[in-house]
Amino acid sequence: MSAPRPLLSVQGLAKRFGGVVALVDISFEIEAGSLHTILGPNGCGKTTLFNLIDGSLKPTAGQIVFDGERIDGEAPHRIARRGIARKFQVPGVFNELSVAQNLEIALARVGGGYSVSALVTARPDRDRRDQLADLAGLTDKLGYKVSEIAHGERQRLEIAMLLAGDVRLLLLDEPTAGMSVTETESIAHLARRLSEERKLAVLAVEHDLSFVRALGAPVLVANEGRIIARGDYEEIRKDPRVIQSYLGMAADA
Ligand SMILES: Nc1ncnc2c1ncn2[C@@H]1O[C@H](COP(=O)(O)OP(=O)(O)OP(=O)(O)O)[C@@H](O)[C@H]1O
């Protein structure tokens, strides 16, 4: 039997900004419903990689194939429509509105686009809103203003808002930056639920080893624009190339 077609296939991807080489010959594949982390220090090219996958940038070389079709160089809104959603580090939520209202706005956007009239006239789908709140572990926070909930809860809220659409690949950009250990574990728990219950693939870039360990997923280690190691958490933390170029003092994490 032939291997299943990967959901995302990145082959020989490279990006230069003038004389600055941001990414060199990046290749990896992600299956539907799987979890992966890219671990790397600041400047290793994580943001550039996400900018290439979501269409914000065009590659200098290489290709990106999503669900069997090339998407490199395609406009970001078309890539988003294919089912790729990206969560940025700073949560894009409305602080003065309630958790419930934020989720309702996300659902209305999917149904009616971004026009103000669509948002104002949309009738909230309370069942779907409550499902999203449950997924994010925010059922008991529906009535709270977003400014009143914790940082980790705001991050989970934004992930739930992204899932209002038909998402198949979720890109998480340093999802646990500034979080406590418990909050970090709650994001890893949510990512695992998305994979298991919704068959959503999640690709997270992080430099926080505790998240990589909590997620328990395959890791690609990046350094200076290249992938220098691949494996699970235990394998990469023992890899001499990783210890030398990245882990250093963090090797006991
Ligand atoms: N628009 C740009 N013009 C010139 N150089 C850039 C540009 N964007 C990124 N770079 C360079 O490419 C390299 C990779 O940057 P990138 O932002 O992708 O790294 P990163 O791993 O996301 O780091 P950080 O976590 O600090 O954002 C760096 O050397 C950076 O200075």
From TrEMBL:
<comment type="similarity">
    <text>Belongs to the ABC transporter superfamily.</text>
</comment>
<dbReference type="Pfam" id="PF00005">
    <property type="entry name" value="ABC_tran"/>
</dbReference>
<dbReference type="GO" id="GO:0005886">
    <property type="term" value="C:plasma membrane"/>
</dbReference>
<protein>
    <submittedName>
        <fullName>ABC transporter ATP-binding protein</fullName>
    </submittedName>
</protein>
<dbReference type="InterPro" id="IPR017871">
    <property type="entry name" value="ABC_transporter-like_CS"/>
</dbReference>
<dbReference type="InterPro" id="IPR003593">
    <property type="entry name" value="AAA+_ATPase"/>
</dbReference>
<dbReference type="InterPro" id="IPR027417">
    <property type="entry name" value="P-loop_NTPase"/>
</dbReference>
<dbReference type="Pfam" id="PF12399">
    <property type="entry name" value="BCA_ABC_TP_C"/>
</dbReference>
<keyword id="KW-0067">ATP-binding</keyword>
<dbReference type="InterPro" id="IPR032823">
    <property type="entry name" value="BCA_ABC_TP_C"/>
</dbReference>
<keyword id="KW-0813">Transport</keyword>
<dbReference type="InterPro" id="IPR051120">
    <property type="entry name" value="ABC_AA/LPS_Transport"/>
</dbReference>
<dbReference type="GO" id="GO:0016887">
    <property type="term" value="F:ATP hydrolysis activity"/>
</dbReference>
<dbReference type="InterPro" id="IPR003439">
    <property type="entry name" value="ABC_transporter-like_ATP-bd"/>
</dbReference>
<dbReference type="GO" id="GO:0005524">
    <property type="term" value="F:ATP binding"/>
</dbReference>
<feature type="domain" description="ABC transporter">
    <location>
        <begin position="8"/>
        <end position="249"/>
    </location>
</feature>
<keyword id="KW-0547">Nucleotide-binding</keyword>
